[in-house]
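Chapter summary example: a protein plus adenosine-5'-diphosphate.
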Amino acid sequence: SCDAVVVMGVSGCGKSTVGAALAQRVEWRHLDADDFHPQHNVDKMRAGTPLTDADRMPWLERLRDELDRRVAAGDPVVLACSALKKAYREVLRGSAGVVGFVHLRAGREELAERLAGRDGHFFPAALVDSQFATLEEPDACEHVLTVGATEPPERIVERVLETWQV
Ligand code: ADP
């Protein structure tokens, strides 16, 4: 089959890491949603201005169209995208290829533990708090995996594949 799976969750939950490992395992392409922001959003983020939903919608539409293009070309995708709100997921589900969302659910404490003493990964607490505040209850299209601070990404990939045949 030729599809697209979205790995979602708050910043630091491991979307990029686990998404890349999953993509490698199933030999699908890995895309990072952050790479698809329109210039307007890039400028805002560089200036430290929070994005609004009005900023996010054109970005999500670009992602949806990219998924459509890939899937039509026979190029299945694992997309890492926070997709914290149902409304955001709805846009991505507008692509016929999207078969579901893997939600890597980590607690605030686990994320803090994971990132304690880690340099290089810029990870402001205020951003994480605002993401937890934004995160909505899971909906039916989400497959929720609770992840701890230290479970290796490869093991998380195995859990994805055990419970959900990608
Ligand atoms: P996201 O894309 O969700 O922001 P990343 O994949 O960039 O998250 O991971 C955030 C940080 O946590 C990185 O430093 C990464 O190396 C680390 N990390 C990711 N997954 C795990 C894991 N399963 N166990 C331990 N550390 C992890």
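Key point: Helices lie at 15-26, 39-46, 53-72, 86-93, 108-115, 125-134, 153-163.
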